[in-house]
Amino acid sequence: MHFAYPPRKSSNPPPYLRAAKLPGLRRSRLKIIAAAGFAFLVLIYLLTRPTRHAPYKSYAPTGNPPAVIVSVFDEMKYDKAYLDLIKDNRIQYAAKHGMLCYETFFPKVGDYDIKGAPTSWTNVVAVRHALTKFPDCKFVWFLDQNAFIMNPDLTIEEHVMKPARLEGLMIKDYPVVPPDSIIKTFSHLKGQDVDFVVTQDKDGMSASSYVVRNGDWARFFLETWFDPLYRSYNFQRAETHALEHIVQWHPTVLARLALVPQKTLNTYSRASKGVEYQDGDFVVVFNGCTSTQECDADAHRYVYRWQSAFKST
């Protein structure tokens, strides 16, 4: 019996089936390489082409006015006659420096939406508003409504913010919240680098009289201080304790802060909480008063003094 032989394999077998895909793969790789090269050229173009936008430049205030005095008035809590007396004090002080064109700014509690936070937070947003209202001012001086300017001869520029003056005033390497805070004021800070001047009393930092230098840093600082998160905290002293918090936790704030003696711009009518006012001091704050009757009684102890001082200059 003869068996059929299986068909012999050709000596020229057909090409391997996958070989038919090689040209396609090569074309695909070429496309990928070409696309990558194009993307690279586009990137180089975008990085090297001339920009149509001018680079950011920090705005430099012209210094007109040199200073704006900000006091926030609570017309619901205090009598008009009392508040008018406080306003008159600020206005007369500004007028005494007429050549310098000092300005005053008197917003009211309720002018801003502070989302249910304690009304004292209005003080912070009012200072921020002043920077917008007077974009060319050099300094903003916040002074609590329950206070008088007592010495018209002293100015913010010379008495407080002049770099050489600050060099002699600054309390360096000192706890920002005495006595136990491990965060201390910078020991190497120069007067020319200071953008925020504040004082302490026996309770800690005092926000009843402070000075901010106008500029980008001031806007950053006030936005940070007025952050909704801090307003939502149940701080016992509201914006003052918030200030203590950010000073201790934000080196960018501490690096621009100068702590100066309370006598410089924030003496008190009562010695129980801090340095008591003496004749010749710049400011007296009626600390501890909480009503028109109490504050008015404190104020009238000083009305004749400041009016007499203003008339004699």
Automatic annotation (TrEMBL):
List the lineage, top down.
Eukaryota, Fungi, Dikarya, Ascomycota, Pezizomycotina
Name of the molecule in the record: Galactosyl transferase GMA12/MNN10 family-domain-containing protein
What keywords sit in the KW lines? Glycosyltransferase, Membrane, Transferase, Transmembrane, Transmembrane helix
Q: What's this protein's family per the entry?
A: Belongs to the glycosyltransferase 34 family.
Top-rank taxon: Eukaryota
What is the protein's species of origin? Immersiella caudata
What GO MF annotations does this protein's record show? alpha-1,6-mannosyltransferase activity
Segments crossing the lipid bilayer: 30-48
A Pfam family this chain is assigned to: Glyco_transf_34
Example GO BP: protein N-linked glycosylation
Would you name any one GO CC term? mannan polymerase complex
